[in-house]
Amino acid sequence: MCGIVGYIGDKQAAPFLLDGMSKLEYRGYDSAGIAVLEEDGHICVDKCVGHLDALRKKLEGNMPKGTAGIGHTRWATHGRPSDRNAHPHTNTSGKFVVVHNGIIENYLTLKEELMGKGYTFVSETDTEVVAQLMADLYDGSFESTVKKVLKRIKGSYSLVFMCEYDSDKLICTKKDNPLIIGLGEDENFIASDIPAIISCTRRTYVMSDGEIGTVCRDKVWVEDIDGTPITKKVFEVKWNAEAVEKGGFEHFMLKEIYEQPKSIRDTMTGRMDAEEKKINFPELKWTAEEIAGINKIFIVACGTAYHAGIVGKYYLEQLAHIPVEVDIASEFRYRAPLVDGSSLTIVISQSGETSDTMAALREARRLGSRTLAVTNVVGSSIARDADQVLYTYAGPEIAVASTKAYTTQILAMLMLAIYAGRLRGTMDRDREIVLAEGLLEIPEQVHQMLENVDQIKIFARRYGSSEDVFFIGRSLDYAVALEGALKLKEISYIHAEAYAAGELKHGTLALIVEGVPVIVLATQEDVYDKTVSNMQEVKAREAVVIAIGFEGDASLAKYADHVIYIPSTGKYLAPLLAVLPLQLLSYYAALTRGCDVDKPRNLAKSVTVE
Ligand code: M6R
Q: Are strands 370-375 and 343-349 parallel, antiparallel or unpaired?
């Protein structure tokens, strides 16, 4: 996730900007830059790909001098990591400068419009469009031009603007991305996150969507787009520096679980037309003929990403009617798969650097398959090697246990299946509308679920000392059960197994004895009765049954010891919600057992060796 800092005051800006950016390093970034309004009235921009040390080196002996500036650590979304794509971005004359977190959804339309007027672009980013638009719409007033720009852009953003024509202020605003203003004495600050400014001030304004902050040396005011003043309350930060990095959460894993409403929204941004209820992938260059020519899809991945692939198989087979095989990458690469020119190989990888997945991708290409990467890291090795890329935009995932990466991967797979289904003529319009309506509700439903976790904490305390836990389900519930079991074992070290519920009686039922917790997922209507029968089988062996089902499903309580209710949604959307209690259960069970949640033993975030 990108990081933003801004300073205006009576001290030199550059040292503060670099220090503030270093406090945002934990979020992950691939390039960095600063813009300082120098004493001669010109804005000087320095930026480069790589870590902050590279930028510091570049500035050695040549630090820009000035008391107002903005800085940015970039985590690429549009355009690979490079010097040119790094922020800040300027218009051609360099008079307007901007840093941005988020995604400008309509940047391509705006870019075409501006190019038609003769504007030229030097980067591949969506952000440069904002700087050029500032120049195009400039009406003599910095404030009013920012408002004009905001009326033209769509998407999610936090933005900070600086302008040579009006050098005594910075202007900032946000939509669906965090932004705070720090209040000091004869100096004020802007940041995307508290760690960047906590060494300077604990007094902040937490900005809300649509608010525009004008930040000067000695005053700050906030108004809406129509100029109506907004009275902000000062929020005093009470956390210590370590807690601040985690946004006040005890662990990165929990923070990332709670980021899911936003990451899910970001995955949909630019691909979901909320008015039309239509899904498109502007980045995928497939014609209907090409999609019709795909005879088979191979999905290849490791760990959690492999589990997302299994969910993806259900989606692609049922919605786009394409046969799908799902492989663990380390198996695929050595099993001489029957891949050819009529196949599409989809590799899924959060990091885009997993060695087995990378090798599997190369093997698929060698065999003549077309390839598509579903990944979170822009410019990663896997993204670079695949023919086409679909980014999940989950933002950096720091905890070893994957959470928001998983939900955004399955969302991406569902949207891909809907899109491919439309192009192949297997998805009728009414069905797409129903699915799109359901998807648009998911971020809020996730948010609501995350507000009510007390029941899960109680279960985690009660069953956290168990030696074995089983997860069962059928169809998509089985796919989610696999992920639930992996989460529990990797961070709480409890032995956990997931089974297709119908498979239990072919051996594993022998392990189901009195008191063994069995988590039963029961969200799939087509196989609901069968799942309930399996639930009764384990109950008859005196297992403790914790069922996960939809609100309003009264019958589960008859057979289960406990029921965790999730908001009612369609069967294809259920995995996006059903996995949340499993993530939380693992997290709280690990806490109960005193495990190191973010860094489980023997595991690494990115497995770059075979
Ligand atoms: O970066 P990738 O998605 O390729 O990583 C794949 C697995 O190593 C990863 O999902 C792993 O299983 C996670 N630790 C699970 O939480």
A: parallel
Two tokens, residue 432: 């797409």
- Spell out the residues 6+ positions from residue 147 whose beta carbon is closer than 8 angstroms to its own: 212, 225, 227
Could you check whether the bond before residue 88 is cis, i.e. omega within 30 degrees of 0?
yes
Both tokens assigned to 493: 């070290």
Run of H or E including 74: strand 68-74
Residues in the chain: 610
* The one-letter amino acid at 505: K
351: helix, coil or strand? coil
Q: What is the mean pLDDT of residues 90-106?
A: 94
Is residue 247 very low, low, confident or very high in pLDDT (cuts 50, 70, 90)?
confident
**Cα(272)–Cα(414) distance, rounded to whole angstroms?**
12
The phi and psi torsions of 75 (rounded to 5 degrees) equal: -120, 105
Q: What's the token pair of residue 33?
A: 């830059």
**Average pLDDT of every residue of the chain:** 93
Do 30 and 379 form a contact (C-beta atoms < 8 A)? yes
Q: 309: Cβ below 6 Å to ligand 1?
A: no
> What is the torsion angle, in degrees rounded to the nearest 10, for the CA atoms of residue 349, residue 352, residue 355 and residue 356?
30
| 3-class SS of residue 52 | helix
DSSP for 264-286, written as a single string? HHHHHTTTEETTTTEE--TT---
In whole angstroms, what is the distance from residue 435 CA to residue 160 CA? 36
| Cα separation, 57 vs 54, whole angstroms | 5
Question: Where residue 469 falls among pLDDT bands split at 50, 70, 90?
Answer: very high
Q: Is the CB of 86 under 6 A from ligand 1?
A: no
Q: Which residue lies with its CA nearest to atom 4 of ligand 1?
A: 349
Gap between the terminal Cα atoms of the chain? 28
**Residue to substitute in 256, 306, 330, 354 for testing ligand 1 pocket (most ligand atoms within 8 angstroms of CB):** 354
Ligand 1 close to Cβ of residue 584 (< 6 A): no
For residue 520, the cross-strand partners are 472, 547
Instruction: For the beta carbon of residue 560, count every other beta carbon within 10 angstroms.
Output: 24
- Residue 112 CA to residue 129 CA, distance in Å, equals 10
pTM score, two decimals?
0.79
Tokens of 280: 């498109």
Whether the upstream peptide bond of residue 81 has omega within 30° of 0, thus cis, is no
CB 174, CB 190: distance < 8 Å: no
More confident residue, 245 or 208: 208
CA pair distance 296, 359, nearest whole angstrom: 20
Residues with a catalytic annotation lie at 2, 605
Angle made by CA atoms 540, 488, 564, in degrees to the nearest 5: 55
Which of 330, 351, 378, when mutated, tests ligand 1's pocket best, judged by the most ligand atoms within 8 Å of its CB?
351
User: Each residue of 562-607: pLDDT tens digit?
Assistant: 999 999 999 999 999 999 999 999 999 999 999 999 888 888 777 7
| Structure token pair of residue 598 | 């973010």
